[in-house]
Each structure stands twice: as C-alpha cells, then as structure tokens.
Amino acid sequence: MNSQLRRLLTFAVAVLVVACARDGASPAFAHTDLVGAAPEAGEVVAGPPADLTLTFTDTLLPAGAQVLVRDERAVRVSGAVAVSGGQARVPLRGTARPGTYRVAYRVVASDGHAVTGSYRFRVVGTSASAARPAAATRDVADRAVVATAAGPPGGPSSSTWVVAGLGAVTLALVLGLGAARRRTSRDEEAR
C-alpha cells in the first residue's frame, strides 16, 4: 500500500507541474481590452450612425460574439455581428430617432476568455452639432443581458480551478502517505 500511495503522489505532482507549466506558458491571464468604439461611450452623434464598430486589443473568435444596441424603449436596433480580427461590427437600423442608445457586448478573445461590457451613446438631429460629454455613462443592466454565460468579470479561469483541485488532491495524498507511514511504523514496533 505504501508504494501505491507513493506512485499516486508522484503522478499527482507530475500532473500539477505540467498544469502549472502550461498555465504559465499560455496567455490565459492576458484578457483582451476594448480600445476603441464608433460611436464611443458617451459620444453625441449628429445624425444616425450606419453601424457600430468595437475594436479590441486581441483577435476575436466569431463564435459567441454578441453586440446588442437598443433604443430608449429597449427595442433592438442592431443587426448580426461580423467579426474580423480584433473588430466586431454590427449594422444599425432605426437610429434616426434622437435619443440615447445602449450598447452591450460579449466577445470571446482568441485565448478563449469572454469579455463583456456596456455603454451608452446619444443621437441628436442632423442640424445639431455633436458634443462630447466629459464622462461616459455605463449601463449595468445591459451587462447582465449579454454576460449571462460569461460568469463574474475577473473571476478565476477554469484552468485556475483545475490547478487548485490538483493541489487539493496532492495535499490529501501527502497527508494520506504520512498517515500510512505512521501506521506502518506502529505495526513494525508492535512486532
């Protein structure tokens, strides 16, 4: 039994080392960031924009990309998402009405991590001049609509849970090996 525990412990430690090495070599902790948007957060646009473009620092995966734009009555005005490199673009229809539009997005970076966010922009009539407010307005409710499958922002990745689980198993095996050695020592002393 002692040799079985020792082999199991060696295997668990080897798996833990490989998992840690893989995690350290991968870009798993380098999430993509939104670096540009047209229209931007808080921007006041003179006239209806034809589309909305979000630009990120890393390449995006087309699967799972969502960009929703809604008017003040919560009517969706965005079309299907097109992803190219680090950009996600949606055509807009129905933005001729002046008002505030809410953007909510969920994209998946090439490293597999989902990124979510939301913001607002405003459309004014074509005769008004566009002005940019000092602070961008965030819309937390839209974040919940898009991020249902994303989990908490900044939460641990699945590989973090795997490494933590392997660490717990390794600790249990070390404690079990120690207990087995103590039993073996007592058994030998009893003889």
From TrEMBL:
GO biological process, one term: response to copper ion
PROSITE patterns, sorted: PROKAR_LIPOPROTEIN
Domain CopC: 31-123
Signal peptide range in chain numbering: 1-30
This protein's UniProt keywords: Membrane, Signal, Transmembrane, Transmembrane helix
Pfam families attached to this UniProt entry: CopC
Gene Ontology annotations for the cellular component aspect, listed alphabetically: periplasmic space
GO molecular function: copper ion binding
Segments traversing the membrane: 161-180
Origin superkingdom: Bacteria
Protein name from the UniProt record: Copper resistance protein CopC
Originating organism: Nocardioides panacis
